[in-house]
Amino acid sequence: MSQTPPAAGAPLSARVTAPQRLSHPTHPDVAVWRGATAADIDAVHAVIAAADRVDHPTWVTPREDVADTFALADVDHLTDTVLAFTADGEPVAVGSVMRHPDTSVAVKIHLSGAVHPQWRRRGLGARLMAWQQTRARQMLAACERAVPGEVHVYAHDGDDGTVVLAERAGMVTGRWFTTMERHMSHPIPELGVPEGVTLVGFDAARDEATRHARNDAFRDHWGSFPTPPERWAHFTGGAFLRRDLSTLAVIDGEVAAFCLASVNEDDWVTLGATHSYIDLIGVVRAHRGRRLAPLVITRTLAAIATAGLERAVLDVDTASPTGANSLYEGLGFVATERDRVFVAHF
After folding, report:
1. CB of 220 within 8 A of CB of 105?
2. How far is CA 64 from the centre of its chain?
């Protein structure tokens, strides 16, 4: 494991060592450790939701997000997730290891999980992290391609437990992300639309074109990999995306820029305000420099205001190569919280 990306050379299978077999963790407070199936969605969500209320109280993980991962063909929770239960059947911890389906440029593995707050400070998190790290190494060691390997763990600012566990595992902070909010009571700039540019809502007919635009726009963004059709379909066909609040900039029939927004009413209580979350903002590289990002954002902000919502929320890479931070500040967004991504390179 190294703190910087290795040079291309030998395949990952020759660079990463891992045991062929991996046993589930053990802990005196846990009666059963096992893999997860679709029947465990509620158990997984119960642990994550309880942890959310402590680790980042302004937003919660929807049950739908957990369920979606069980529907993905490239995710096997039976082998890549471990659940911990007490003797009376209470779920107290969960950890998952998920490999991004696109391995053309690198093999990226994301570790996620939680320990129920009532069961913390007992060493459960350390057992989970050790198991996840080993499972991640197994995935990397199974790759015969000469590409970099990355393991990522997200930690909300103030989530000291995850920070300690990640650093003990030899991971380093690779990036910071900032949550920004905008109060919709502030006036929204009225921007003129240049000739040749058409602003439209996000309709199903442009679904695939928007996916291609997203992949092009994010090719030079840190940690971003192409989104395959199946993952995109789960996002655009999910319960939260609001096509009426989303905006596309179309030039010569092609999607040149996009601003996609969603609404999860469960988050309204935790944030303390009705709001829309802006999931994706991007401009394809061939059309950068034409001020398309402010156009699609302001149209979406106007739609959010018309819907009667009180705030708009988004997250931004603090070192974005496109200068997104300054753009959002100029449109009235204010930084509120931070998250960091811990990374191990192989």
Report:
1. no
2. 14
Burial of residue 157 (CB within 10 Å: 0-12, 13-18, 19+) is: middle
What's the whole-model pTM score? 0.92
- For residue 8, the model assigns a pLDDT of 54
User: Using CA of residue 246, residue 251, residue 254, residue 257, what is the dihedral sign?
Assistant: negative
Cα dihedral sign, 31-36-38-42 = positive
Is 137 within 8 Å of 16 (Cβ atoms)?
Answer: yes
Q: How far apart are the first and last CA of the chain?
A: 5
DSSP assignments along 2-14, one per residue: BSSPPPS-S-HHH
Measured CA to CA, the distance from residue 55 to residue 44 in angstroms comes to 16
pLDDT along the chain (346 residues), means of 10: 57 95 96 98 98 92 95 95 98 98 94 97 97 98 95 94 96 96 96 96 96 95 91 94 98 98 95 97 95 97 98 92 86 96 97
Show the tokens assigned to 238: 């999910």
Residues 278 and 327: their CA atoms lie apart, in Å, by: 14
How far is CA 135 from each of CA 36, 80, 128, 147, rounded to the nearest angstrom? 15, 7, 11, 19
- What is residue 181's predicted lDDT score, i.e. its pLDDT? 98
Angle between helices 41-55 and 63-70 (to 10 degrees): 140
Q: Is 345 exposed, middle or buried (0-12, 13-18, 19+ CB in 10 A)?
A: middle
What is the distance between the alpha carbons of residues 193 and 304, in angstroms, rounded to a whole number? 19
* Residue 312, C-beta contacts closer than 8 angstroms, at least 6 positions apart: 181, 182, 184, 261, 275, 276, 277, 278, 300, 301, 304, 333
**Under the phi-then-psi rule, with left for phi > 0, alpha for psi from -120 to 50, and beta for the rest, what region is 262?**
beta
The residues, any chain, with a CB within 8 Å of residue 296's CB and separated by 6 or more, are 199, 247, 248, 249, 257, 258, 259, 281
pLDDT at 2 (0 to 100)? 46
CB 46 within 8 A of CB 33: no
Q: Is the torsion defined by CA of 50, 51, 53, 58 positive or negative?
A: negative
